[in-house]
User: Fold this.
Amino acid sequence: MPVGTLANVKTLTPAQLKETGAQMVLANTYHLHLQPGEAIVAGAGGLHQFMGWKGPLLTDSGGFQVFSLSEIRNITEDGVTFRSPHDGQTIHLTPELSIQIQNALGADVIMAFDECPPYPANREEVSAATARTYRWLKRCIAAHQRTDQALFGIVQGGIHLDLRQAAAESLATLELPGYAIGGVSVGEPPELIVKIVQATAPLLPPEKPRYLMGVGTYREMAQAIASGVDLFDCVIPTRLARHGAAFVQGERWNLKNARFRKDFTPLDGTCPCYTCQHFSRAYLCHLLRAQEILAYTLLSIHNTTELIGFTQRIRTAILNNRFSTEFAHWLIPATAQR
Amino acid sequence: MPVGTLANVKTLTPAQLKETGAQMVLANTYHLHLQPGEAIVAGAGGLHQFMGWKGPLLTDSGGFQVFSLSEIRNITEDGVTFRSPHDGQTIHLTPELSIQIQNALGADVIMAFDECPPYPANREEVSAATARTYRWLKRCIAAHQRTDQALFGIVQGGIHLDLRQAAAESLATLELPGYAIGGVSVGEPPELIVKIVQATAPLLPPEKPRYLMGVGTYREMAQAIASGVDLFDCVIPTRLARHGAAFVQGERWNLKNARFRKDFTPLDGTCPCYTCQHFSRAYLCHLLRAQEILAYTLLSIHNTTELIGFTQRIRTAILNNRFSTEFAHWLIPATAQR
Assistant:
């Protein structure tokens, strides 16, 4: 899922986004609550109508953002009080309010409000946050009002595999329509993400979608897919684009580099995207050096197409029973290569 | 012609630009010479190939920009020496070099290198610049190497109608494939532009394209068309978009305004553009307040469609012999209205 934090995937129209092969898009409850507010999104007829995206949408719960972006004032059993970085007002976000906001936004999949402990954190803190996340999940289930929205639960547990496993097993008994692994990509070493996913994903029901939140890169996705993960979200394709970088042949290239000034070949001759079909590396280099906004759009188109293409190739390989051989390169730790 | 200064119309892909109804696009010789340089554009196969625009292209000569954007060091009969604002280097631009650059860029229409006097300027200065512009035009004609590019001459003469008329008559004898009226929109009152165009355009051959450079607004275009002008270029649609403004119903609206926050109607319900067909004023207001780049793209699509639509409606009205009645509103000075 490309990330459309503020009800748009940065620099891309929905028409351009669809052409990348994207199916499902993520938007952020926290950001949309602050700006423009869920009442306006609901007034427009819901998030699909507001942002012009006809495909599936998922909203996160705001939990991760409250804990990572805000100045927290107070965490209690009831919820979290924080100061809005948008206008300084004090906001008290509870499981019930998160669900109420997400019901108003109207995405197809909504997420439980969780407590996401930082990394590093001691075992007692993580254990308490994981237990609270479970109690908050029950409150989310009770608060959820719309049968046309699927509520996913989130497995926390930090880097403690036994806490993760206990949480996954508890959640699995609730027969939710889908499950997520949260609280990764919060600063822990990448090899720990693999271990967490390997220990957790197989305990979640295989017939339900399993979603690894905030991941990822080629390698992280391939390795998580090997453990049974189905769904990812990641800002990398569009964020890298806005830094002038492109995914090409599994590498990250800085297109502003002088070596591209007179390179009249496409970014990737094998890529079907609009950018690769119409423009040269020299043109992208020129646009970046001239700080033209179009550069960010063209690179976002390519990067999103490329990352989604990677998952599409994995899907095909799985169906052909060739995943572990064709993607062997991505299934070993980066440090073991070259 | 939408303006694509640095080989792109700001924030728009060529596919989006085509959907606005745009046929011909202008690019700037001065800017492209400085960055990325005409050698790179030529290396890509020319400007059309470089920027992915299959329709007609026009490059200006650099004259206007040298006189308006640069720190001029010296003007002689040979040419103009100036300091590049891009990297500080000293550049000597002559009629021959301007044509050589434009031959390398490869637009369908290229412009003669002219001396554009400032406003205000005394009659002697303007007279000297106009005479020099004519001598430089002859040198441009001699230097021009490509029969597949149409070289247009430019009428100067400031606000002095007799100088304008003498220049127009001299140029008309040269049997060029097209003619432009330059040196307007340089700070003079709008009513003077009308007078200049009324005095000059009818003296240029009616069977050749007549191009009013750097104009315009609805009113300026309608009034110039009434005098026989065929071609315009203007940065307003995309520049206004980047300031969060839209052309709607002949007015300029600031979409960031609070009155649009909960306005779920399209920008213009009668407009066929992608933006009006898919998004509400509330969404555009939200994107602008969130400083999302997509806002500038969506407003550029609408504004360009709207301004080109205006000229298309004029074309239809002319063919139906209804121009002066249907567009009467635009054919009188703004001060005479309401």
